[in-house]
Amino acid sequence: MKLLVIDDHPVVRDGLGAVLRQLEGGTEVLEASDGESGLALAALHGDLRCVLVDLRMGGLAGLPTLSRLRALRPGLPVLVVSASEDPADVRRAMAAGASGYVPKSAGRSTLLAAVRLVLAGERYVPPLLLQEDVPSPASLAGLTPRQQEVLGLLCQGHANREIGRALDMHEKTVKAHVGAIFKVLGVVNRTQAVEAARAAGFHG
C-alpha cells in the first residue's frame, strides 16, 4: 500500500510516516514538502491509496492543494492533518472535498482509525466538530427502545451481524436501525456515533 504525506515540516513528515507504516506490512510512505511537489508525486504514482495533507504550508497551501488533488485524482481519499482545531477550518476542508480531518494533537490510534475509515470509503469528522452540536439526552430519547438496545451493543464494539444474533434480528434490520441512529445523533459512522452517544450521557 502506498500513501503520500504533504507537510512542510520534516519532523512532522517523519512522525506521520512512522505511524502510517503500522497500518500493514509493506506500507510505503512518500513525502512532499509542499503542495506543488505533492501534486507531482500524486500524478506520478497512480497506485496511491490515500494522501495526508497539512492545511497551512509555505507555497501552495493545503486547501488549494486539496482542490487540485480532487481534480487530478477524484477517487483518491485525502485526509487533512492540521494543527488547527478551529471548527471553521474543519468545515472548509470537508466542503473542499476532504475525506476526513485529524488535528495534529490527536493520538496515534485516532490517526490510524481515521486513515482506515477513509481507505474504506467513509469519512472521518473529528469530535471537535461534533462538540459544536452535541446530542442532548432529550434527543437520545428520540430513539426507539430497540434502537437504544442496538446503540448499546454498538457502543460495546459489536458488528451488525453480532448485534443481530444478540437481539434476534436480521442483519438488514440492524443496518436500518444503525442508519436511523446516525440520523438522530447527526453522525456519519460508527466511531462518531459512539463518541456522540457517550458525550450525551448514554450508558446503554
Describe it:
The protein is an alpha/beta fold and 204 residues long. It has two domains: 2-130, Rossmann fold (3-Layer(aba) Sandwich), CATH 3.40.50; 134-199, Winged helix-like DNA-binding domain superfamily/Winged helix DNA-binding domain (Arc Repressor Mutant, subunit A). Helices cover 51% and strands 12% of the residues. A five-stranded parallel beta sheet has the order 2-1-3-4-5, with helices on both faces. β3, α3 (62-72) and β4 (78-82) form a beta-alpha-beta unit. α2 (35-44) runs parallel beside α3 (62-72), α9 crosses α10 (171-185) and α10 packs across α11. The longest helix has 15 residues, at 171-185.
TL;DR of this structure?
The chain is of the alpha/beta class.
